[in-house]
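Hello again, I could really use a second opinion on something today. Take your time with it, there's no hurry, and the full record follows here:

___
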Amino acid sequence: MLGSCTVRYEIYRFFDTGTRGNSTSPAPSPSSPSSGANPPPANGTSPTTSKGSSSKTLPIILGIVGGVVLALMVCLFAMRKKLKSAISQRQLTRAKNEATRENDPESTLLKHEQTIFTLEALVEATDNFDENKKLGEGGFGPVYKGITRDGKEIAVKKLSLRSGQGKREFMNEVNLVANVQHRNLVKLLGCCAEGPERLLVYEYLPNKSLDTFLFDPEKKKHLDWHKRYNIIMGIARGLLYLHEDSQLRIIHRDIKANNILLDEGLNPKIADFGLARLFPEDETHIHTRVAGTYGYMAPEYAMRGQLSVKVDVYSFGVLVLEIVSGRKNSDINFPDEIQSLLEWAWRLYKRGSLPNTIDSTLAETCRQEQALRCIHVALLCVQGDAGLRPIISNVILMISSASVTLADPTKPAFVKGSESSYGGSTVGSGIQSGPSAAVSSVSSASTQNHLVPSINDVTISELDGR
């Protein structure tokens, strides 16, 4: 079929068909002068019959060749698609293996396979990651809203290629979130790992994160006290599941307002498990590298890398103060001598002015006793001594039950000065009652009547059971 091919055919045999040693000469060529008329074909068939057979054979040959070519094309297309899928799977497996080598305690989590999205599908869903589709941006990369071909809304987290911890965060989140399911935890739908790209696909929550409501002068009006209380309890239940009720014991390490997403009913869901850490069941604490957000990190973790469930409890306490007060932990509107929300709330507590911490927009809807109880529990959660902080199950009990007696909190971490410099009584807000309050009052009176060389920060044990 090519120009380089030459095909010759005759109606007689033109090759020497004699046996070795036979002197039979080849048949003369039709063009030879001595040949005369063309000799009859050896098989007795006429030229017309031979040409007819050739005309029928050629289409059959062409059809067979065409079919083979078509089959080869189909096979090549299928092999190409399969190879592309295998490459994506191999890249994901390589990323898993890298995460396993880097985080040995998490190697047991590689059991649950997530849905693998193609990069092409996510590019199409987000209009090539259009800036108008951006929902927000965290420390590891932006989050975009997307719509799949079947009309489902998704949130796509695109890990920054510049982040040195992108691969670690990617696999950490895939492994941990895939193994935990709770109404107050965001749902991971799948992931994508093609080439250098690392993308996580979540359920889409229309109200974005808590900080977009809480710290906006207009939007915060939609968060009445009932909604804020439900958000506090929802976050606490999510942490209780991570710390005590899930099949894996997990410490989130980055509880803050912009990692709390809100659904259409303003119900909270804890998100961003990139820094989460699997915690051994038989350990009270471990030492690890420090990662998180300053202002929400417990002192023993920020300074010594000592990690325990009390680290999440501390972050939760800071977040509760933000929710009730409507102010950021590092609000620039604080007086010069006050460095943080913790110090501001602590001073008001020591002066017996704790109601002043409640957000002014809650004046009409707030149940003051319930709000003051949340602030008091938050101060217990941010105490400098991790051993004095309650576990999350006790936090839920103290917030939800008015019959539980609350102990006096000690000074929060990172607060300057001694307790005596703030003035006021040690009972503070007056929420505490019972024998422990009486003991505290006696101790305060005794301290005023006797000179002491230093402040005694030793806590007083409660003699009556709760």
About this structure: The first helix runs from residue 47 to 102. DSSP finds eleven helices and twelve strands in the chain. The chain has two domains: 99-204, 211-449. Confidence is low (pLDDT under 50) at residues 31-37, 99-113, 418-453.
